[in-house]
Every structure is written in structure tokens, then in C-alpha cells.
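re the bet — no i am not wrong, look at it urself. input seq straight from the record:
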Amino acid sequence: MESIEENKMIRLSKSCLSDAEKKAVIGVLDREFLGMGSEVQQFERTLTEFFGRPAVCVSTGTAALHLALQAAGIGQGDEVLVQSLTYVASFQAISATGAKAVACDIDTETFCLDWRDAEKRLTPNTKAVMPVHYSGGVGALDEIYLFAKKYGLRVIEDAAHAFGTEYQNVRVGGFGDIACFSFDGIKNITSGEGGCIVTDDQEILKKVRDARLLGVEKDTEKRYSGERSWDFDVNEKGWRYHMSNIMAAIGIEQLKHFPVFSDKRRALAAQYDQLLLGTKGVRVINHDYGKVVPHIYVVEFNENTLRDQARRRLSEHGIQTGVHYQPNHWLSQYRVRDLDVRHVDEIYPRLLTLPLHPDLDEKDVTFVCDILREYLNEI
């Protein structure tokens, strides 16, 4: 077994920054225009080129989901279908509109939304479906879109994990209804915090641009030119969800690094697969890393008791791990008693997230896998 330097911590995830990001931030500070302005406009333009369709930047990925839902007309009394195995942000964004998040089951192979289970939960109040691209994969996305078309539902993709992933040779966000991304500190690219909404729907784009600036109409154009709206109107509910120039400056540089970041994430995930495939007691998600850019690397143990014991063993060797995610229907705010989402309930206690970020190297991944296999061989 290869050893890792004494006292080295192998981090689960981290921001991966260069001097370019630091210089870009200093440039914004030196100009003393920290709010939403030309850097945000430039970041949106580069993202629009990246996706091949318009992107609007906001303060967080959660804000992106909230604004996308609101712009799509989702509100009080409506219902949105979403898998329970997702970060609480997905549920909070739905409830922020006044709508109800309807917890659904997952596909056992991809851990993405099981559209057949979602179909069983349709009511006259169902207005949208939110597929979550868990770990970077998209699951049965074609089937979800066909299902949504059949029932007249909007599709708001929670693509926080899938920046750069390709589906049928098109980047996620480059097709479909509405896709929302996160740029928080540990995502595939970061702007410190931040997110974006990507769509061809011009009405959605207009509403999002206004709503991110407290509903002030056409304030976006003013901000880009370094001005403010003083005589304005507000016709819809809005929020202080705009991105700052500081955040955008980081994001612009991160996007330049993305080809390297994505290649590294794919290579490390493929290495995990190679080392763990066939290991007794654990299985990996079947992703094509020629297409998927993974945000996290998740394994499933075949027994509930193994996950927590494995976490302790890995921690003893300086390896951080995580659990993505505690089911939302278990949380007090969204608890539904006797809810039949059996795959979520069965699989969640067996999931473990291993370290994955561009600053890892092959020796780190080998060491993690050696410790994990050593533990599994003992039981």
C-alpha cells in the first residue's frame, strides 16, 4: 500500500484557485465597483457562449432555482415533483415560491429521479418537475421530458452537480426547458458563491433579470453601464439575488480553467472506478466519464452498517468523506410520514462520498481505495 505524507489531510472537496482569480478580485477592488456591473455582464456572455444559449447570473444556485420557478409561474398551491435524495436547497427553493415540494423516489442505478414514481404522485396541482442531476449524471432525462410534455409540466433542471456534463453530445444547459447551476466554493467551477439560469425562453429570462434586482424593471441594463435606476416601476415580487462583480471576476477566470478541471475530475473518477470495480461489499455509479463531469464521487455499500464504519476507518487515515444527502422527507420542515420512497430510504444509509477535486492526485485516490479495500477485506 502506498503511503501518504504524515499529517496530510485528503480533503473531501475544496475550492481550487490560482493567482489569476486573486488578481481579478484585486482588479475589482481597485476599481471600487463591487456590486453588479461589467464583470457580471462579461461572465454572462462567456457562459452564454459556453452553453450556446442565454445565461443569467445570480447570487447562488438556490436563488437560481427559486427565480426559475417563480418566473415559470410556480406559486402558492402548486406542486413540484422532485426526488427526496437531494440537498435541501432544491426543496427550499420550491417552498420559497409558496409551492409544495412533492418528494419522489430515485432510480436505483443513477440515483436520479424515478419518473415512473413521480407520475404516480401527479395531482391537478402539479405544475413542474425538477430532475436533480445527482453527482453529475442526468438519469432518464429524455423520459422525464416526455413525461413532462405529456402532462404539460415545466422542467426546471437542478444541474448544480452537472456543469460541463454532456448529454447526447450537447452540454447540460444547452437544451431543454430551464437549467439551473451553482458556482459555490466546491462546484465544478466556482465564483465563491453564485449560480445561473440557462434557457431559451425569453419571458423567463426577462423575469429573472428583473426579479434578481428586487423586481426593478430593466435595472440590469443600468447596472451593466455602472448606473442605477432612480425612476422605476415594480410589477412583480423580486429579491436581492444579483451576482456581484467580485464573484463574477472569480467565475470568469474559473471558466478559463474548466477544461483542465473537467479532465482532472473525469480522470480521477475513472481511476476510482478502475480500483473499486469488483471490490466486495461496494459498488460504483455507472457513469460514462467521457460525457459526465462529476461533482462528487459516490459509492454504495451493500449493507447499512458498513458506511459509518468505513467513514471512521478512512478518517483515521486522514481521509475526509461525506454523505450526499439526507433525504428531505426525513427533515422536520418537509417530513412526510409513511411516504413510500423505498429506494431512497434503503439506499441513503449505504451511500458514502469519497474525495474528489482537481487538486487531488492519483496517489491520493490510490491511497483512499487501498484503505477502503483493506477495511472491506477484513469483514
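see?? The chain has a mean pLDDT of 96. told u. also The longest strand covers residues 79-83. so pay up
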